Amino acid sequence: MGILSRIIFSSMIILIILFAFVIILILSVAFSKTPFGVLSTNTAPVGNLGEDQLLSCYLPMPTVSQVSVSWEKSGITGFVYQHTKGAASLKNQNSQFKGRTELFPNDLVTGNASLRLRNVRLNDEGEYYCTVSSSQGGGRITISLRTAAYTAPTFNLTNNVLAAKASRWFPKPNVTWLSLDQEVLQGDTTFSQHSFGIYSVTSTLQPVNNSGSYILKIENDLVTSVSTARLTETEISKFSYFAFSVASSLLPSPHLTIMISVLCVFYVT
Q1: How do residues 195-244 score in pLDDT, each as one tens digit?
Q2: Which of 156, 157, 161 shows the shortest CA–CA distance to 207?
Q3: Omega prior to 207 cis, within 30 of 0
Q4: Alpha carbon of residue 172 to chain centroid
Q5: Which of 85, 125, 133, 170 is least surrounded, with the fewest CB atoms within 10 Å of its CB?
Q6: What does the pLDDT read at residue 195?
């Protein structure tokens, strides 16, 4: 009976802990900064410097009418973009965003208030606020945009030397060669810094097996690129993907003892 009692007691403690965690999680969601009514597919995107970035914002409704949208950025005066009474209203637009922002007017009737930001710059980084109002409802959401530069590498094989080059990385990354068994291999990496502090990465691995497969990982605090190069006698085939770190502001409360890790993954070929 003593053993059975201890088993029952331990089971009850585990159930209490699980219920407490669920309650804390529910309360954390209930009191989060994200208002009910406006959603985003990605509240912490990593914009690639020099390229366009979509800031997602939408009302989860099949159709809406009389839609007004305003995009603002913390720390600046004026709007990033404003749409009222069926048209863009850019009189009070901040000069930083003139000619670089747009909505998708035809999609507003489906609740899509997402913003396209063209030619991402370093000073675009920060918190953006998307506010939507319509006859069916509305709300506001915060998007934390982070900026980096990242490209998947290209590979070249010459005389049993496998060379990789990635033309744009910022901040400066770490580079690691791996076997398919995740064994760390000794490579040789050099960096060249160009305009705006962006780095190009050149790395070589030798000697290599002309029928082998090798993994190249390029990573900084925001982005990780993982590429697998499969070698044959006649060609190199490559599979790559990017993984983006989660913003620290989106991690669970420090009062929660369970750490949750999430990666947003983007595949390239």
Answers
A1: 789 999 999 999 999 899 999 999 999 999 999 999 998 899 999 999 99
A2: 161
A3: yes
A4: 18
A5: 85
A6: 78
In whole angstroms, what is the distance from residue 211 CA to residue 235 CA? 10
Strand order, beta sheet including 101-102: 53-55, 115-117, 101-102
Q: What is the pLDDT of residues 168-180, one digit of tens each?
A: 999 999 999 999 9
Q: CB 37: neighbour CB atoms within 10 A? A: 18
Q: Give the whole-angstrom CA distance, residue 75 versus residue 92.
A: 15
pTM of the complete model: 0.77
